[in-house]
Amino acid sequence: MLALRGTEHRLVSAVVLAIDQTVTWKDIKVARLVVRPFSKTFLDRYLDRAGDEILGSVGAYCLEGLGAQLFTAIDGDYFTILGLPLLPLLEALRTRGVLDA
Predict the structure, then answer these.
(1) I need a labelling partner for 70 at 20 to 30 A (CA). Which of 14, 46, 77, 81 fits?
(2) What is the pTM for the complete model shown?
(3) What stretches of the chain adopt beta strand conformation (E)?
(4) What is the DSSP letter of 7?
(5) Nearest to 88 by CA among 98, 97, 74, 77
(6) Coil, strand, or helix at residue 4?
(7) What is the mean pLDDT of residues 53-80?
(8) pLDDT (tens digit, 9 = 90+) per residue, 16-49?
(9) Beta bridge mates, 27
(10) Listed residue (10, 18, 29, 27) closest to 79, CA to CA
(11) Which domains does the chain have, with CATH numbers?
């Protein structure tokens, strides 16, 4: 995370539906994140407070918690940043009758 401070980067997240190994639908989303300049002391405290749970978070952002403090700007879908473009997936499943419309 130290290498990203003060910079912008992009996070790509994708999902695919397939039947019998044939892709029937796919979606790719990109989010733009601007990491604020922060001190190593801040990062050390952030990691201590976040604990081992941070290892299960995409990019170790933990955006849904303490990680919001890492950024000055975010442009993109929240679920994409969490690791799955969920809303397009849910719509695709509804369209295919897998979920109730």
Answers:
(1) 14
(2) 0.82
(3) 8-19, 22-35, 71-75
(4) -
(5) 77
(6) helix
(7) 88
(8) 999 999 999 999 999 999 999 999 999 999 999 9
(9) 15
(10) 29
(11) 2-95 (3.90.950.10)
